[in-house]
Specification:
This protein has 382 residues and is of the alpha+beta class. It has four helices and 14 strands.
Amino acid sequence: MNWVRSAAFGLFLIVSGALVGIVGYRWYDQRSQSYRPDIGSVAPPRLTRVTALGRIEPGAGVSNLGVGMPDVVQQIAPSIQEGATVKKGTPLIYFASKGDRQLEVDLLTLQIAEAGEKLAELKKIGEQRVELEQLKKKQLQQQSPAEVELQKSKVAVLTQQMESLRKTRERLTSLGQFSVSKQELEQQNLTVAQAESELRAAEEALQQMQKGNLLKQELAEGQIEAARGEVRKAQMEISIKSLEQQKQIAERKLEHSILRAPIDGTILKIAAVPGELVGPPQPVIQMADVSQMAVIAEVYETEAGRAKIGQKAKVTSRAWPDQTLTGVVESVGTIIARNRILDSDPTANVDRRVVEVRIKLDQANPASQLINHQVTVDISTE
């Protein structure tokens, strides 16, 4: 009978516990409903800043200086070392090709000088020949008219003689054969024929002389143009202009054998030593203007719309725990890309999509001493 009482007691405990649980649940549900807040009436928290990781860089970026063609570093210019401040145009590195290119420039300079002397001499000779031909033409112009006039006078005299002889012949013929012998008349006819022949010869000589003078004039002009043509030919064969262009190319090559500073700035890194073979695309020297520094913040794409140009920003770093840098948002990127800066927190998302926001710092130091250093950026969106 003991086991019957034990079973009845156990059943009693189970039923009692169930009743207590039901009563307690209903009481708790009523209490929770009576204190349930109105979610619609609670305002969401106001976001007043955007926090992101960033990196320090010069305001105008870093200049990676190199060479266009493989070359050997011959010498690093004196006083050029990392941290040195240089002016634009300052020689930084001399390459081994400088000697050969300097010889090429010197050779072309000598060739230009020699070509100039030769061209001047040929030009002088040509001008002298032109002058000589012009003198010949002038002499011909002066002599020819006199010769023509002399020949014309001779023709006139012969014409008068012939007319006189013809009149004499006519007079003898009119006297008749009883007064003039046949032999005298024949002699007179022969004399007239000779006079006519001499006159025709003189007239032909005059015509030939006039034509010859014209030909001589044309020939003189041709000789002058030929002399001028030889001068032009010499100028074409001795082309100083092409030599000067070759010299300009050689001077450019010579200039490329010296690496010069493209800006006023500070030498950040020298990545070569004398005797080393260098070439593209690896830089030989890195330099930048560190008088103005900036921070590139990588803002989550979901928060990028809250970043605006002109907003104030604060920059902190473990490298200077007691100092906070200030700046202003200068630009907000429009391209979403994968983050380049990794958070030191092992639980952070290492593959995130961000927008680059550029912040212009109000002060250069100490940021100028830690280029590419990782910092934390707080952008005020109020």
